[in-house]
Design goal:
With about 300 residues, the chain is of the alpha/beta class. Helices cover about 40% and strands about 15% of the residues. The radius of gyration is 20 Å and the shape is globular.
């Protein structure tokens, strides 16, 4: 999978247009919001808050469900739940479905909480000691940290005493009000949470965390906690895409990262030039997607 690239979306909050536009710019979707013929070898991750917690859009659920169910061969799509989705599930437990059907609520419940790929951790909020302790246990027991998602669903969504109603559940999600203060806080031995978490992430083989949850000023924030969590690259991917209609992070390999936003488009010379550049980088140009044999046939037909 070394040739794969990963596109990360965050905090689109009920907005389909920002998802469609971002993936169209990258050459993955056509103007109709469907996968382009021939795209392959990519991974799409949404790090949560894809719904508005007060007024969740059924259209968004249907759209993401269709994208996931029609994902091109040799590609993957992971939709993570953020605090918005969890709050929707909490309300549904108290007979407030917010207008969503049972199937739509099940779609939300069946999504993941985090995803680990290579050296990258994708999560909605900020990795906490509670989350990493559970990840360590899962890795030790099963060898695959992504097994955490099934365990989370069983413990926090199912059963008579679902724990996700309590504060511990939100801590595992990384729903922290003041992340910098959290990572600077010290335990009983005088060590900061950030240094302790840095050591835990390194032990898990993770050196990059990509998350959303706290919006920036239309651009992604890189190396967010380089002092508080040394040795770990934090990327805050919440660049208010729901307002700018454009926002993503692209990851390829162990350390190749590129941001997609309006500022990058401006420096590229506008929409047309930017889309051309991104399609060239990701090899989603028409000539990259059509097999060479078919290209040759098409050329002969034109003669």
């Amino acid at each position: 999978m070394s040739s794969w690239f990963t596109v990360v979306l965050s905090d689109t909050d009920n907005d389909i247009k920002s998802i469609q536009y971002s993936l169209w710019i990258l050459g993955l979707l056509n103007k109709g919001g469907k996968w382009r013929d021939g795209v392959k070898n990519f991974r799409l991750v949404h790090t949560g808050d894809w719904l508005n917690k007060a007024n969740p859009s059924r259209e968004v659920i249907s759209f993401l469900d269709r994208l996931k169910s029609t994902i091109p061969e040799n590609s993957e799509m992971f939709i993570l739940n953020g605090n918005h989705e969890v709050e929707i599930l909490q309300r549904s437990e108290h007979s407030n479905s917010l207008g969503l059907s049972k199937n739509e609520l099940n779609f939300i419940r069946n999504q993941d909480i985090m995803h680990v790929c290579s050296n990258n951790l994708f999560v909605h909020g900020y990795p906490t000691f509670e989350l990493l302790r559970l990840l360590s246990d899962v890795k030790e027991e099963s060898g695959c940290m992504n097994d955490f998602n099934d365990r989370f669903r069983k413990a926090f969504y199912d059963g008579k005493y679902a724990l996700f109603r309590e504060k511990e559940g939100m801590a595992i999600l990384g729903d922290i009000r003041q992340a910098q203060a959290y990572y600077r806080s010290k335990d009983g031995d005088g060590e900061t949470q950030g240094r302790k978490i840095s050591r835990m992430l390194e032990k898990l083989g993770i050196d990059t965390v990509i998350h959303g949850h706290r919006p920036n000023m239309m651009v992604q924030q890189d190396f967010e906690f380089k002092l508080e969590v040394p040795g770990i690259r934090f990327i805050n991917n919440d660049n208010k895409a729901r307002l700018s209609k454009l926002g993503a992070t692209i990851v390829k390999g162990n350390d190749w990262v590129r941001f997609v936003n309006l500022r990058e488009m401006y420096w590229a010379g506008g929409e047309k030039s930017y889309r051309k550049l991104m399609k060239k980088i990701l090899k989603t140009r028409k000539k990259d997607l059509i097999p060479k044999e078919q290209q040759l046939d098409d050329a002969l037909c034109k003669q």
